[in-house]
Amino acid sequence: MLKSLSDHGVRRMSNHTITAALICAVLAFAATNAWAGPCTSDIADFEAAIRASQKDPLAGLTAPQSVGADLSHQPTAASVAQAQARLKKTFAVTMARAKRYDAQGNGPGCTRELAKAKRMYVL
Asked: How far apart are alpha carbons 121 and 37 in whole angstroms?
């Protein structure tokens, strides 16, 4: 009789543990959704599209043509590297600003910055 009581206690404890784990999972999911900003899903979709385009040679960061290019000046390797570095930095700053606005709940700011980032990246 003692053995059957202790087995019942173990099963009962396991059910409580499972229930507690399930409740924690549901609360964590609800908290994640509650913290989502006004354009969190748009940012995630854009970042997923960027990752998906990594093998596409036509995809990547782009910038408007410079005045020097309009005057038929040939770029040097150093000037191209500088331009690429500036573009990467500008893109990273723009995405960080969009995420910051999103975290603050600033929908218009987030949407504006995300639109700027999308104009810099050809998918």
From this structure: 23
Rounded CA separation 63/90 (Å): 10
64 vs 119: CA distance, rounded Å: 10
Residue 55's SS3 state is coil
pLDDT in tens, 66-101: 887 788 888 899 999 999 999 999 999 999 999 999
Q: How many CA atoms lie within 13 A of 29 on its CB side?
A: 6
pTM of this structure: 0.69
Tell me which amino acid residue 111 is.
T
Q: Token pair of 84, please?
A: 């690429």
